[in-house]
Amino acid sequence: MLIEQLPWWLRIGRGMEWRRDAGEKKIYLSFDDGPIPEVTPWVLDVLDRYGIKATFFCVGENVHKHPEVYQEILQRGHRTGNHSYNHAQGLKMANRRYYDNIEQAARLIHSPLYRPPHGIVRPSQLRYLRKRYRLELSDVVPRDYSRRLSGQQVLDNACRYIRNGSIIVFHDSLKAEKNLRYALPLFIEYCLAQGWQFELLY
Protein backbone atom coordinates (compact mmCIF):
# COMPACT_ATOMS: atom_id res chain seq x y z
CA MET A 1 0.00 0.00 0.00
CA LEU A 2 2.88 2.39 0.60
CA ILE A 3 3.53 2.35 -3.13
CA GLU A 4 0.07 1.97 -4.66
CA GLN A 5 -1.44 4.63 -2.41
CA LEU A 6 0.62 6.73 -0.02
CA PRO A 7 -0.95 7.24 3.43
CA TRP A 8 -1.79 10.81 4.43
CA TRP A 9 1.16 11.13 6.83
CA LEU A 10 3.65 10.68 3.99
CA ARG A 11 2.04 13.41 1.90
CA ILE A 12 4.06 16.12 3.59
CA GLY A 13 4.86 18.43 0.69
CA ARG A 14 2.75 21.57 0.99
CA GLY A 15 1.88 22.97 -2.39
CA MET A 16 1.66 19.56 -4.06
CA GLU A 17 -1.72 18.12 -5.02
CA TRP A 18 -2.21 14.39 -4.53
CA ARG A 19 -5.99 14.13 -4.72
CA ARG A 20 -8.92 16.34 -5.69
CA ASP A 21 -12.28 16.85 -3.95
CA ALA A 22 -13.25 13.60 -2.22
CA GLY A 23 -16.89 14.67 -2.20
CA GLU A 24 -17.25 14.45 -5.97
CA LYS A 25 -17.48 11.22 -7.94
CA LYS A 26 -14.69 12.27 -10.27
CA ILE A 27 -11.27 10.81 -10.98
CA TYR A 28 -8.28 12.13 -12.89
CA LEU A 29 -6.49 9.78 -15.27
CA SER A 30 -2.89 10.66 -16.09
CA PHE A 31 0.07 9.17 -17.92
CA ASP A 32 3.78 9.69 -17.30
CA ASP A 33 6.99 9.36 -19.34
CA GLY A 34 5.77 9.64 -22.95
CA PRO A 35 5.16 10.47 -25.63
CA ILE A 36 6.49 7.58 -27.69
CA PRO A 37 5.12 6.25 -31.00
CA GLU A 38 5.01 2.63 -29.81
CA VAL A 39 2.52 3.26 -26.97
CA THR A 40 1.03 6.76 -26.83
CA PRO A 41 -1.10 6.55 -30.02
CA TRP A 42 -2.60 3.29 -28.75
CA VAL A 43 -3.46 5.01 -25.45
CA LEU A 44 -5.11 7.85 -27.36
CA ASP A 45 -7.18 5.36 -29.36
CA VAL A 46 -8.35 3.66 -26.16
CA LEU A 47 -9.35 7.00 -24.64
CA ASP A 48 -11.23 7.93 -27.80
CA ARG A 49 -13.06 4.60 -27.72
CA TYR A 50 -14.47 5.39 -24.28
CA GLY A 51 -14.88 9.12 -24.85
CA ILE A 52 -12.67 10.27 -21.99
CA LYS A 53 -9.83 12.74 -21.62
CA ALA A 54 -6.57 12.43 -19.68
CA THR A 55 -3.53 14.44 -18.68
CA PHE A 56 -0.12 13.42 -20.08
CA PHE A 57 2.97 14.39 -18.09
CA CYS A 58 5.55 14.35 -20.85
CA VAL A 59 9.32 14.00 -20.79
CA GLY A 60 10.83 16.83 -22.82
CA GLU A 61 13.36 14.59 -24.53
CA ASN A 62 10.53 12.42 -25.87
CA VAL A 63 8.62 15.49 -27.04
CA HIS A 64 11.77 16.60 -28.89
CA LYS A 65 12.14 13.18 -30.52
CA HIS A 66 8.45 12.67 -31.32
CA PRO A 67 6.80 16.08 -31.79
CA GLU A 68 4.08 14.61 -33.99
CA VAL A 69 2.95 12.29 -31.18
CA TYR A 70 2.93 15.19 -28.73
CA GLN A 71 0.80 17.26 -31.10
CA GLU A 72 -1.61 14.36 -31.48
CA ILE A 73 -2.18 14.38 -27.71
CA LEU A 74 -3.20 18.03 -27.88
CA GLN A 75 -5.22 17.69 -31.07
CA ARG A 76 -7.34 14.96 -29.51
CA GLY A 77 -8.29 17.28 -26.66
CA HIS A 78 -6.08 16.04 -23.86
CA ARG A 79 -3.99 18.05 -21.40
CA THR A 80 -0.21 17.93 -21.04
CA GLY A 81 2.16 18.64 -18.17
CA ASN A 82 5.91 18.92 -17.66
CA HIS A 83 7.74 15.85 -16.32
CA SER A 84 11.26 17.32 -16.72
CA TYR A 85 13.49 17.00 -19.78
CA ASN A 86 14.93 13.55 -19.13
CA HIS A 87 13.16 12.25 -16.03
CA ALA A 88 15.38 14.26 -13.72
CA GLN A 89 15.34 13.32 -10.04
CA GLY A 90 15.59 16.37 -7.81
CA LEU A 91 17.24 14.57 -4.89
CA LYS A 92 20.15 13.53 -7.10
CA MET A 93 20.83 16.93 -8.69
CA ALA A 94 21.99 20.37 -7.67
CA ASN A 95 19.05 22.74 -7.56
CA ARG A 96 20.08 24.96 -10.47
CA ARG A 97 20.76 21.96 -12.69
CA TYR A 98 17.36 20.53 -11.79
CA TYR A 99 15.56 23.79 -12.53
CA ASP A 100 17.37 24.13 -15.86
CA ASN A 101 16.27 20.61 -16.78
CA ILE A 102 12.64 21.47 -16.10
CA GLU A 103 12.86 24.74 -18.02
CA GLN A 104 14.44 22.94 -20.97
CA ALA A 105 11.32 20.78 -21.07
CA ALA A 106 9.08 23.83 -20.62
CA ARG A 107 10.33 25.25 -23.89
CA LEU A 108 8.61 22.29 -25.58
CA ILE A 109 5.75 21.66 -23.14
CA HIS A 110 3.75 24.82 -22.59
CA SER A 111 1.86 23.90 -19.45
CA PRO A 112 1.42 25.25 -15.92
CA LEU A 113 1.44 21.68 -14.59
CA TYR A 114 4.53 19.88 -13.30
CA ARG A 115 4.93 16.39 -11.87
CA PRO A 116 8.29 15.57 -10.28
CA PRO A 117 9.68 12.21 -11.40
CA HIS A 118 9.15 9.73 -8.55
CA GLY A 119 7.19 12.46 -6.76
CA ILE A 120 10.11 13.58 -4.61
CA VAL A 121 11.81 16.97 -4.36
CA ARG A 122 13.86 18.80 -1.76
CA PRO A 123 12.05 21.43 0.33
CA SER A 124 14.06 24.15 -1.40
CA GLN A 125 13.06 22.78 -4.81
CA LEU A 126 9.44 22.63 -3.75
CA ARG A 127 9.50 26.28 -2.70
CA TYR A 128 10.93 27.26 -6.10
CA LEU A 129 8.62 25.08 -8.17
CA ARG A 130 5.32 25.91 -6.53
CA LYS A 131 5.83 29.58 -7.41
CA ARG A 132 5.99 28.64 -11.09
CA TYR A 133 3.88 25.51 -11.52
CA ARG A 134 0.90 23.66 -10.18
CA LEU A 135 2.47 20.49 -8.80
CA GLU A 136 0.30 17.46 -9.52
CA LEU A 137 1.31 14.22 -7.84
CA SER A 138 -0.90 11.12 -7.66
CA ASP A 139 -3.19 9.31 -5.27
CA VAL A 140 -3.00 5.90 -6.98
CA VAL A 141 0.06 4.28 -8.57
CA PRO A 142 -0.86 0.80 -9.84
CA ARG A 143 2.78 0.12 -10.86
CA ASP A 144 2.20 -0.83 -14.47
CA TYR A 145 5.95 -0.35 -14.99
CA SER A 146 6.84 -3.22 -12.65
CA ARG A 147 8.28 -6.36 -14.26
CA ARG A 148 7.27 -8.24 -11.11
CA LEU A 149 3.56 -7.61 -11.61
CA SER A 150 1.17 -9.09 -14.15
CA GLY A 151 -1.41 -7.06 -16.00
CA GLN A 152 -4.10 -8.51 -13.74
CA GLN A 153 -2.21 -7.42 -10.62
CA VAL A 154 -1.85 -3.92 -12.02
CA LEU A 155 -5.58 -3.84 -12.74
CA ASP A 156 -6.34 -5.12 -9.24
CA ASN A 157 -4.16 -2.38 -7.72
CA ALA A 158 -5.89 0.33 -9.70
CA CYS A 159 -9.41 -0.89 -8.92
CA ARG A 160 -8.67 -1.50 -5.26
CA TYR A 161 -7.29 1.94 -4.42
CA ILE A 162 -9.25 4.28 -6.70
CA ARG A 163 -11.66 6.58 -4.83
CA ASN A 164 -13.45 9.90 -5.26
CA GLY A 165 -11.00 12.59 -6.35
CA SER A 166 -8.15 10.19 -7.06
CA ILE A 167 -5.37 11.21 -9.43
CA ILE A 168 -4.17 7.94 -10.95
CA VAL A 169 -0.98 7.53 -12.95
CA PHE A 170 -0.25 4.97 -15.63
CA HIS A 171 2.79 5.12 -17.94
CA ASP A 172 2.84 5.37 -21.74
CA SER A 173 6.29 3.79 -21.88
CA LEU A 174 7.89 0.66 -23.28
CA LYS A 175 8.58 -0.58 -19.77
CA ALA A 176 4.88 -0.45 -18.89
CA GLU A 177 3.47 -1.39 -22.30
CA LYS A 178 2.54 -5.02 -21.65
CA ASN A 179 0.74 -4.35 -18.38
CA LEU A 180 -0.82 -1.14 -19.68
CA ARG A 181 -2.34 -2.80 -22.73
CA TYR A 182 -4.03 -5.33 -20.48
CA ALA A 183 -5.08 -3.12 -17.59
CA LEU A 184 -6.07 0.24 -19.07
CA PRO A 185 -9.26 -0.70 -20.99
CA LEU A 186 -10.50 -2.91 -18.16
CA PHE A 187 -9.77 -0.21 -15.59
CA ILE A 188 -11.71 2.38 -17.58
CA GLU A 189 -14.66 0.00 -17.93
CA TYR A 190 -14.59 -0.69 -14.18
CA CYS A 191 -14.60 3.03 -13.32
CA LEU A 192 -17.40 3.84 -15.74
CA ALA A 193 -19.48 0.98 -14.33
CA GLN A 194 -18.96 2.40 -10.83
CA GLY A 195 -20.22 5.79 -11.97
CA TRP A 196 -16.97 7.77 -11.87
CA GLN A 197 -16.55 10.69 -14.24
CA PHE A 198 -13.11 11.22 -15.79
CA GLU A 199 -11.81 14.80 -15.63
CA LEU A 200 -8.73 16.66 -16.83
CA LEU A 201 -6.25 18.24 -14.46
CA TYR A 202 -6.10 22.05 -14.64
Q: How big a fraction of the residues is strand?
A: 5-15%
Mean pLDDT, all residues: 94
Largest sheet: 5 strands, parallel
| Cα end-to-end separation | 27 Å
Q: Which structural class is indicated by helix and strand composition? A: alpha/beta
Sequence of secondary-structure elements: EEHEHHEHEHEHEHE
Number of strands: 8
Annotated CATH homologous superfamily: Glycoside hydrolase/deacetylase
CATH architectural grouping: Alpha-Beta Barrel
Number of helices: 7
Morphology? globular
Notes on the protein architecture:
The strands form two sheets. Strands 2, 3, 4, 7 and 8 form a five-stranded parallel sheet that branches. A three-stranded parallel sheet has the order 1-6-5, with no helix packed on it. The protein has 202 residues and is α/β, with parallel strands linked by helices. Helix content is 36%, strand content 14%. The chain has one domain: Alpha-Beta Barrel (TIM Barrel). The protein has helices spanning 40-50, 60-65, 67-75, 95-106, 123-129, 151-161, 177-193, and strands at 16-17, 26-32, 55-58, 79-82, 113-114, 134-136, 167-171, 197-198. Strand 5, helix 5 (123-129) and strand 6 form a beta-alpha-beta unit. The mean pLDDT is 94. It is built from seven helices and eight strands; from the N terminus they run E-E-H-E-H-H-E-H-E-H-E-H-E-H-E. Helix 6 packs parallel to helix 7.
